[in-house]
DNA sequence: TTCCCGCGTAGACACTGTCTACGAAGGGGT
DNA sequence: ACCCCTTCGTAGACAGTGTCTACGCGGGAA
């Protein structure tokens, strides 16, 4: 049996670490199997023992992203007071900030062609998050179908993240800050701020 | 000089034709330079004379998508009567139907990493379309900043197209038809249907 | 005829992901 | 103490990719 020393993280985790670092620094297209192996200091065949396929390694990297997003959302909710409306706003802001701050990772997380078909991150991390959103939306707008409104709101956030992320919305709308767009989306789906 | 016979489309157009056909049939990942050349019946080096780089060929293919989307939108508007609200709804429906009917093409059109950095399609085809959307939105909601509302609405449509396109929204919301989501988004940004 | 030039061919190169055979290292059972 | 055996990483092959370069064919122009 192999004894695990304290600083011995194991190759599996090291590969994912390298991937997270790499996608943050150079983007999705840099996440080559061989490049990750190189930066981890092992041969190009080594990852195969832990990740039978390139997609599985990418999926493991993406899961880190989903986990961090969930953690950020949890942290935002931990400072617990405020109206439901304000909480949705905080959640949305966290979401957009994550997407725009960690662009490469966000892109990876939503590149379904690069991830295992199981939609890993969604079921494990995003669904609870979406459930929480539904819950809050239901409290803000008891009149409407909360899942529908939450779904449309999520789509709006995703669209803003994506389109803003590479400049289309700046070009189209002429604004240079995404906050007004976020406010517009929130007002639209939840009603104006003052309730 | 070379005489152009009637059935002689020229290799350049034939390559783009093959690409459009291929992306519709097999998806973005099938749009290999060599595969396109193969299906066009030429050697793998031939495309290079017309498209110095793979990205330029993909961009030419994507432009066809932008053009068709613009054409569909124009056709929808040609049947000219109806309130501004109804026109926005028609435009939105056209957009979503295009995105979900021609999934591969839509994916290509918004894969900025595969397109020339000039964002060709946007400036030439999408921007006029967006301008028209702004115009209509301004008529529906004279109170608000039309560009902001139109931007948020476009983001919502894009998000629905993307997330619905690979099943996330179905999974999250539990519905199996995107029409309610579209209606929810339209109602949110434009106010309920009955004006 | 002879030249030239547009157009496509064919091979090389570095790179990718996957597969397979191999070797080093170390603990457990006898 | 010895051997075996499992674990883990190495190294090479293979088919495929995008790009680059040298080459040849073929038809209009001089």
TrEMBL record, chains A, B:
Matches recorded under Pfam families: TetR_C_33 (PF13305), TetR_N (PF00440)
Lineage: Bacteria, Bacillati, Actinomycetota, Actinomycetes, Kitasatosporales
Entry keyword DNA-binding: yes
InterPro entries membership: Homeodomain-like_sf (IPR009057), HTH-type_TetR-like_transc_reg (IPR050109), HTH_TetR (IPR001647), MT1864/Rv1816-like_C (IPR025996), Tet_transcr_reg_TetR-rel_C_sf (IPR036271)
Keywords, ordered alphabetically: DNA-binding, Transcription, Transcription regulation
SUPFAM superfamilies: Homeodomain-like (SSF46689), Tetracyclin repressor-like, C-terminal domain (SSF48498)
DNA-binding region(s), chain positions: 32-51
Organism this protein belongs to: Streptomyces lanatus
Name the UniProt record assigns to this protein: TetR/AcrR family transcriptional regulator
HTH tetR-type domain mapped to chain residues: 9-69
Matching Gene3D superfamilies: Tetracycline Repressor, domain 2
């Amino acid at each position: 049996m192999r004894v695990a020393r304290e600083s011995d993280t194991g190759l599996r985790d090291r590969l994912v670490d390298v991937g997270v670092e790499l996608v943050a620094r150079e983007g999705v297209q840099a996440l080559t199997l061989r490049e990750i192996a190189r930066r981890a200091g092992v041969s190009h065949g080594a990852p195969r023992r832990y990740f039978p396929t390139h997609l599985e390694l990418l999926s493991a990297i993406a899961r880190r992203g989903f986990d961090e997003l969930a953690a950020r959302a949890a942290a935002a909710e931990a400072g617990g007071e405020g109206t439901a409306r304000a909480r949705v706003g905080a959640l949305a802001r966290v979401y957009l900030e994550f997407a725009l701050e960690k662009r490469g990772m966000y892109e990876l997380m939503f590149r379904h062609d690069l991830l295992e078909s199981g939609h890993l991150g969604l079921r494990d991390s995003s669904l609870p998050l979406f459930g929480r959103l539904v819950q809050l939306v239901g409290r803000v707008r008891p009149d409407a179908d909360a899942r529908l409104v939450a779904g449309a709101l999520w789509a709006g956030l995703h669209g803003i993240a994506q389109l803003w992320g590479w400049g289309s919305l700046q070009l189209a709308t002429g604004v240079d800050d995404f906050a007004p767009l976020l406010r517009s989306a929130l007002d639209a789906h939840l009603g104006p701020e003052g309730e």
